[in-house]
């Protein structure tokens, strides 16, 4: 039996999903959550095989809930079931660890098929979501730090800069001169196409560049 947890803030949606999934001999709905926080709690209690996760919910949205679930239970599958197909929703959902992304207008039989595919280890994406994901990945290839990668030492300097340290403090931390730090920072600004330390720090946080190389 495939154990399913439904997470959606709309009662009617939960009821509809429950009603249909109950007709499937190999699927058991073990619980329902009305927001992301409750979904995380129920996952801990019920240990489902897969969570049908809405994106926009109160208290904690589907993306944050998915991140929590995947961090604590990496084996757990999450299938996003939402009304949004734009890349601002698709990309964060897949980056959070979702195994699939389907829209709520999906045919019931196709939804069951998607659940079974995920349980077989396959990813399943709605065609619109797949298009957005491909476009987002292509855009990602053109990001400044992808085109002009930072050196290991520049990564170290950026990591320290992001902590709000001055050039002198960075130099002391990395056992280099202030002049060397200044040179690295100029190179970082040029490569990331930013104008100042604040923009560099924000860029680093946004794209996960806040951890130095440790060299």
Describe the structure.
Helices cover 55% and strands 13% of the residues. With 215 residues, it is of the alpha/beta class. It folds into two domains: 2-140, 3-Layer(aba) Sandwich (Rossmann fold), CATH 3.40.50; 144-206, Winged helix-like DNA-binding domain superfamily/Winged helix DNA-binding domain (Arc Repressor Mutant, subunit A), CATH 1.10.10. Strands 2-1-3-4-5-6 form a six-stranded parallel sheet, sandwiched between helices. Helix 2 runs parallel beside helix 3, helix 8 (152-162) crosses helix 10 (178-192) and helix 9 (167-174) packs across helix 10 (178-192). It is elongated, with a radius of gyration of 22 Å. The mean pLDDT is 89.
Layout of strands and helices, then pairs:
Layout: E1 2-7, H1 11-21, E2 27-33, H2 36-46, E3 50-53, H3 62-72, E4 77-82, H4 87-96, E5 100-103, H5 108-119, E6 124-125, H6 127-141, H7 144-147, H8 152-162, H9 167-174, H10 178-192, H11 197-206
Helix pairs in contact: 2-3, 8-9, 8-10, 8-11, 9-10
């Amino acid at each position: 039996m495939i154990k399913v947890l439904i997470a959606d803030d709309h009662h009617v949606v939960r009821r509809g999903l429950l009603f249909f999934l109950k007709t499937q001999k190999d699927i058991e709905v073990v619980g329902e959550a009305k927001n992301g926080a409750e979904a995380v709690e129920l996952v801990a209690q019920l240990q489902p095989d897969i969570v049908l996760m809405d994106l926009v919910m109160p208290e904690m949205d589907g993306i944050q809930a998915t991140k929590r679930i995947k961090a604590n239970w990496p084996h757990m599958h999450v299938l996003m079931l939402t009304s949004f197909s734009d890349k601002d929703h698709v990309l964060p959902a897949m980056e959070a660890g979702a195994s699939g992304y389907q829209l709520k207008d999906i045919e019931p039989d196709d939804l069951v098929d998607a659940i079974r595919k995920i349980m077989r280890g396959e990813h399943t994406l709605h065609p619109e979501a797949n298009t957005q994901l491909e476009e987002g990945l292509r855009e990602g290839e053109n990001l400044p730090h992808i085109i002009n990668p930072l050196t290991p030492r520049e990564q170290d300097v950026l990591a320290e800069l992001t902590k709000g340290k001055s050039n002198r403090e960075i130099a002391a931390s990395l056992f280099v001169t202030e002049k060397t730090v200044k040179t690295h920072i100029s190179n970082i600004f040029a490569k990331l196409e930013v104008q100042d330390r604040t923009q560099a720090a924000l860029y680093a946080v946004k794209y996960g560049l806040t951890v130095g190389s440790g060299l």
